[in-house]
Each structure stands twice: as C-alpha cells, then as structure tokens.
Amino acid sequence: MPRGDKSAYTDKQKRQAEHIEKGYEKRGVGEPEAERRAWATVNKMTGGGKLSGSGRGKAENHAPARKGGRLGGKAAAARPAAARSASARKAAATRKRP
Fold first, then answer.
1. Are 37 and 19 in contact (CB under 8 A)?
2. How far apart are CA 60 and CA 52, in angstroms?
3. Is the pTM of this model over 0.70?
4. Is 31 helix (H, G, I), strand (E, B) or coil?
5. For residue range 40-87, what is the model confidence (pLDDT) as tens digits?
6. CB-CB contact of 39 with 17 (8 Å)
7. DSSP state, 79?
8. For 91-95, what is the mean pLDDT?
C-alpha cells in the first residue's frame, strides 16, 4: 500500500476529513495544506485507518477537533494592560450590582 493511500479508512473517517478540510479552506488555508491538516486531525482523533473486525474498535478522542476554537485571544493580548484592567473593573462592578 503506497503512502497516502486512504483505502484503510472508513467512510466516516473520509467524511470527517472532508468536513475538516472545508473548514480550513473557509478560513483561508490553501487546498493541499488544508487536506494535510484534515487527515492529521482525523489520524489524531481515531488513531489512523480503522480496520474492520471484532475487538479492533478504539474510543475516539475528539479533543483535536475542538482545539481550533480555543485558540485565540490575540486581540485582548494586544491591548495595553491598563485597558484590560479597566475592563475587568467595569465587569466586576456590573456583576456586583443587585
């Protein structure tokens, strides 16, 4: 089986990779890089191609798929500390009000 052959993957894994790839492309990642990242994510989640057979099933780890949504905070980090502190004080005051 040559490298890159996807015959060992289930239909579900192929659908997952396609969906993840579309998400990357929507965010401006090039097509080859999006495909590479999508399959890397599927491999991380499922442990590679799933072969059929009794007792071969392994639980899926969905953390790699969720990871993208937690990245960020660059806008807040770019603001000066005084501005962030003022926002925090204002929020605390709002919560304190009855």
1. no
2. 15
3. no
4. helix
5. 999 999 888 877 776 677 788 888 887 766 667 778 888 899 998 999
6. yes
7. S
8. 92
